[in-house]
Amino acid sequence: MIKDSKLLVGLEKPADAGIYQLTKDLAIIQTVDYFTPIVDDPYTFGQIAVANALSDIYAMGGKPITAMNIVCFPKKELKISILKEIIRGGMDKMHEAGVLLIGGHTVDDLELKYGLAATGIVHPKKIVTNANAQPGDKLILTKPLGTGIIATAIKAGVAKKETVKKIVHSMTMLNESAARIMLERGNHLIGVNACTDITGFGLIGHTYQLAVNSNVGIKIYLENVPMFPEVKKFLKEGFVPGGLYANRDFYLPHIETNPALARKGGTSLPRENLDILFDPQTSGGLLISVPENKSGKLLKKLFEQGIKSASLIGEVVAKPARKIVII
Ligand code: CO
Ligand code: CO
After folding, report:
1. Count of C-beta atoms within a 10 Å radius of residue 221
2. 100-108/63-73 β-pairing
3. Of the bound ligands, which one is closest to the alpha carbon of residue 31?
4. Could you read off the pLDDT of 254-303 as tens digits, one per residue?
5. 18 alpha carbon – ligand 1 mean position (Å)
6. How far is the CA of 49 from the centre of ligand 2 (A)?
7. Residue 13 Cα, ligand 2 centroid: separation in angstroms?
8. What are phi and psi of 149, to 5 degrees?
9. What's the gap in Å between 229 CA and the centre of ligand 1?
10. Which residues contact 83 (CB under 8 A, 6 or more apart)?
């Protein structure tokens, strides 16, 4: 692999986006994300795909500036008007974010997919990564979990309209305001130590990456983890996305649970509670690692800005390093 000192975030400590320094005070953040529809309405899907794709840039403290559409479209099976609606939804969301669409690429494919390759800018000294969480930090999550499970229920036709509305509201919400608040430096809030956004690997997967890259341990307060109220019911009824099992298989060895919470006869926490932590999220919230003395202020500001689901869900510990302990 070619080494380059201007590569500030690359594959050595993997994140979902890369950062390359151009000048003393300018670096670019590049990211790409696209996926198959998770809601029926094409316009809404376009909005979600864009909010999701820009999320990595916000998580890293950057400002998205340009984007290119990535489209896979089965043109024989679907009407072109569907694609137009998806793009319109995407464009509206880009407009809201102040992002310019500068190009794109469409291929004929069996399965519809949409997303962006997006570029953002950041001052090299103001980058927030997932590699600097410090023991003693508190962890704040800004959106509820459960979009993967609920999307599975939507596909099966069993989710109520209000439920769909709730997750759509959450998934179309840009992480821009949460990121802006996290970056504020005045008012005694002088920065956060680390951040990541929660997407396909679920809360546990992205938290684990934060623990590994920062060489710390993480305690999660299960009771405090925000989730959509319908999620537990859907889980019990078996609406489990395939990605949840994959995440669970992969990350379970890195988790310790508090035996005091174990179910009688079992070895771990009630399964449905743990499973939610593995649910792959689309356009999930930011997970922010902030010094304890600033965590209350950060939470208060998030509430004031309408990010009502924000919750203090855990803390960073020195040991056991690279482990997640659920209490
Ligand atoms: Co990305
Ligand atoms: Co990400």
Report:
1. 15
2. parallel
3. 1
4. 998 876 554 444 445 566 678 999 999 999 999 999 999 999 999 999 99
5. 9
6. 13
7. 13
8. -65, -45
9. 28
10. 42, 71, 73
